[in-house]
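User: For my dataset I need records formatted as: sequence, then structure tokens, nothing else. Please produce one.
Assistant:
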Amino acid sequence: MNTKFDELLDFPCDFTFRVMGVASETLPDEIISVIQKHAPGDYSPEIKPSSKGNYWSISVCVVVTSKHHVETLYKSLSDIEKVRYVL
């Protein structure tokens, strides 16, 4: 990835990932599992359903340590089958 996170952020810092995916009871656990691999910690995802309930927006605040760390998390979260977007 060619991003400018290193120019925009002072590491380490809190970074909120918003993951949008198909509504599923297992989606929050899958997201937290991926985050735990790269940034172990205690997380409380915030879940917001879409107006029709077909999709969920899940926000999780993570302490990131570098540009590479942010990019790795974006890529890993995007690889989850039910995920459609990572913001």
